[in-house]
């Protein structure tokens, strides 16, 4: 447990946080010249053009921009899901797209958690079984994987829903199941694609506040795709995309939402 919050203690924590922010800015992810197009000939669309950025340990970086601006495509390349046409991604110093398919699958399983916009939960498995999947794939014994899944469900506040199928859960609860599944292998990098899109304001804020306060730590880097300005206060930095390009990176909180997004 944390120390009780006395004024001195709070001041100490604040200083520690500030120091951590200003001193320990180590690079977790480096993307360089990421480019991706879809289709051929007349149907060719350039979805992402020459995107470069760095993300640091201990930060939450938001990726915002209008629908179709390339956010999902870009972070799919960063997460090892979609191979770039050009450019490089290095995570913890590893150039991920130079790995073989098997090596990359292994790397993703151990290093990256991805929460898809529509959750991708398996309807015929229980909630706990859904959460256990990464450990099952990693060939952990079934009982161990299931008890670990229950532990992570408890962390996201869903211990009592372990044995029901995900269809019995609300949107916010399904989101937390998807987060628990992304976290169970203790990834350094967590990517959430539009995590609050289908949620009401309070549920969305609670989930992002949970991610900020319970999931983020000094070794983790969290990337969140969103155009929900109600949660911008939880961002350390906000990267803007338009037409497949980065148009700027601003500090969280100081950012003003685009008109009409
Ligand atoms: N699998 C795909 N096949 C063809 N076009 C795609 C595919 N995925 C994305 N696109 C196109 O790439 C562009 C960027 O899409 P996306 O990355 O999904 O944007 P965002 O996540 O910002 O809404 C859009 O024009 C979209 O239609
Ligand atoms: Mg998207």
Question: Could you please describe the fold and organization of this structure?
Answer:
The protein has 261 residues and is of the alpha/beta class. It has a single domain, classed as Rossmann fold, CATH 3.40.50.300. Helix content is 34%, strand content 25%. It contains seven helices and ten strands. Strands 6-7-8-3-9-10 form a six-stranded mixed β-sheet, with helices on both faces. A hairpin with a 2-residue loop joins strand 4 (86-91) and strand 5 (94-95). Helix 6 (171-183) packs parallel to helix 7. It is globular, with a radius of gyration of 19 Å. The chain starts with 6 loop residues before the first helix and ends in a 10-residue tail after the last strand. Mean pLDDT is 89; it is low at 254-261. Magnesium ion (MG) is lined by residues 71-72, 193. Residues 38-39, 45, 47, 65, 67-73 line the site of adenosine-5'-diphosphate.
What summary fits the major beta sheet? 6 strands, mixed
Q: Beta-strand percentage? A: 15-25%
> What is the count of distinct domains?
1
Task: Kindly state the percentage of residues in helix.
Answer: 25-40%
Head-to-tail CA distance between termini:
41 Å
Descriptive labels:
261 residues, alpha/beta, binds magnesium ion, 34% helix, six-stranded mixed β-sheet, single chain, disordered C terminus, globular, Rossmann fold, 7 helices, binds adenosine-5'-diphosphate
Record the SSE blueprint.
Blueprint: H1 7-23, E1 27-38, E2 45-56, E3 59-64, H2 71-78, E4 86-91, E5 94-95, H3 101-111, E6 112-115, H4 127-137, H5 142-155, H6 171-183, E7 189-193, H7 201-215, E8 221-225, E9 237-242, E10 245-251
Parallel strand pairs: 3-8, 3-9, 6-7, 7-8
Antiparallel strand pairs: 1-2, 1-4, 4-5, 9-10
Helix pairs in contact: 4-5, 4-6, 5-6, 6-7
Bound molecules: adenosine-5'-diphosphate (ADP) and magnesium ion.
């Amino acid at each position: 447990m944390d120390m009780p919050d006395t004024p001195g203690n709070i001041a100490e924590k604040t200083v520690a946080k500030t120091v951590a922010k200003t001193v320990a800015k180590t690079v977790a992810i480096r993307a360089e010249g990421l480019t991706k197009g879809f289709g051929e000939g007349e149907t060719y669309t350039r979805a992402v053009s020459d995107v470069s950025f760095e993300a640091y340990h201990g930060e939450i970086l938001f990726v915002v921009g209008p629908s179709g601006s390339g956010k999902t495509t870009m972070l799919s390349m960063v997460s090892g899901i979609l191979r770039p046409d050009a450019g490089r991604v290095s995570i913890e110093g590893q150039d991920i797209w130079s790995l073989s398919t098997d090596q990359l699958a292994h790397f993703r399983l151990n290093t990256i958690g991805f929460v898809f916009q529509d959750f991708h939960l398996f309807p015929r498995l229980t909630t706990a079984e859904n959460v256990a999947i990464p450990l099952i794939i990693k060939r952990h014994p079934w009982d161990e994987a299931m008890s670990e899944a229950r532990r992570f469900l408890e962390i996201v506040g869903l211990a009592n829903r372990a044995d029901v199928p995900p269809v019995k859960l609300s949107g916010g609860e399904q989101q937390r199941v998807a987060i628990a599944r992304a976290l169970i292998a203790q990834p350094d990098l967590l990517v959430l694609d539009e995590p609050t899109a289908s949620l009401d304001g309070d549920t969305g804020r609670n989930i992002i506040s949970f991610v900020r306060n319970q999931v983020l730590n000094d070794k983790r880097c969290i990337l969140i795709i969103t155009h929900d300005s109600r949660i911008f206060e939880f961002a350390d930095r906000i990267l803007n995309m338009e037409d497949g390009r980065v148009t700027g990176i601003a500090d969280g909180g100081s950012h003003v939402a685009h008109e009409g997004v």
